[in-house]
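Show me any protein, keeping tokens residue-aligned.
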Amino acid sequence: MRTFVATRNAGKLGELRAIFGGSILDLENYPAYREVDEVASSYVGNALIKARALSRQLFDSGIEAAAIADDSGLEVDFLSGRPGVLSARYAGAETPWPGRREALLGELDGLAEAERTARFVCVMALLLPNEEPVASIGVVEGRIVSRERGGGGFGYDPLFLYPPSGCTFAELSSEEKNAVSHRRRAANALLATLHMRV
């Protein structure tokens, strides 16, 4: 099923292509995708905003295909779930990722390891032509380390420890991360729903 991804984030696109590889969804990049403001107060709301925007852009270009979008965030228990849906705009929309990670570490400075619990959350929304949206959620639990570790991944990956491996997401290989990540879990749930429909 020809499916375009509502993102301009190359790292996210690469992960999604790897995760959905071999599935019924054949993911493609839409270079002309125009990003929209993520103004919803929930992951599902933002995912639907992006998927609907891309779907309209595809329709206006004469392309009949599915559109998929995800919204994800890091929730830190000590910060009452922040940064959450504002993860990509934490410490200011123009702040680069190293600055966001530094700001987060600053808020947790001196906090004991047991109090640094957190989770990555991902919601995926898929719009098929002339059908109701399909949405799914994936969650992975972990902790925030006291300093950046690893050179892989993107975003908050160097700070997020996945306890079963003893590594941050940035220390795992792409294959290892994609097997256990919040995006993998959301994708599995989405595909399971799609298989029930057909």
In short: The first strand starts at residue 2 and ends at 5.
